[in-house]
């Protein structure tokens, strides 16, 4: 039961594009599209071409990891891919990680995420739980936040269960007094909002949240920043302003604009940063990312609110460089990012 078939993953995302052109015409006109990633039709049908291969939970022997998929909630297709370093008798920090993709695409089984997370787990010496949450527009925000919070509560439930089962094989390797939440892009937004909920909910014994890792957090706002206006088509970057706008239209609650607090944590009406009960935060920023200025504004606002923030800038690279690896500099910066994450976790 712990292993999830590729067929079950693909069937829930409408990624199957074997339908004929005639079948597609029955759905009406395309009303939103990001070429190669997603099409949304007038009748609500969503098509996600398999532009990124999905891979099974297997890693090379050189990484010295156990890797396996585990079902969290079969009714909502909530599952996670666990990466557990082979350190017998040693308990390791746990990082609960959320992938990017504008809340609309992506999966822990995407080869780019599988390769990045396996390297991160191996190099940092921590257990990584890579979460598959529900996607918009079928499941608009806050559904992804709900899934993120429920993933943390599931870990708590597993830790307090007295009976053994096949889903808890990873638990003996975890030091639950050192739990981190993190993610990149939309996943970083999810991590931030999950941490807010954890703080508001109070104790989550036996888990102790020690830190938050935000990699190129996908925040937005109605007023354009300098980097959004002048880095609108940056080279070697996975995000443009046009793509960002489509993602927000598809993921925010219907009728909301980009100053909704799900998008803009600094907007009027959003939870005051001073009121957040959160542990130290690390924010990874890319110099050539259109989101650079939003990340810098967020870091500055968090410091003014008295929060502990570690800010790291990665020079010469764009959004999601750590999963693109399309040129040598991105690979170098990815090694640097993993080193920074490892240091933050092991403080």
Automatic annotation (TrEMBL):
Which Gene Ontology MF annotations are present?
hydrolase activity
Positions of region (Disordered): 1-24
User: Entry's InterPro entries?
Assistant: AB_hydrolase_3, AB_hydrolase_fold, Carboxylest/Gibb_receptor
What top-level branch of life does the organism fall under?
Answer: Eukaryota
Alpha/beta hydrolase fold-3 domain boundaries:
95-322
> Which segments show compositional bias classed as Polar residues?
1-19
Task: Write down what this protein is called.
Answer: Alpha/beta hydrolase fold-3 domain-containing protein
The organism of origin for this protein: Papaver somniferum
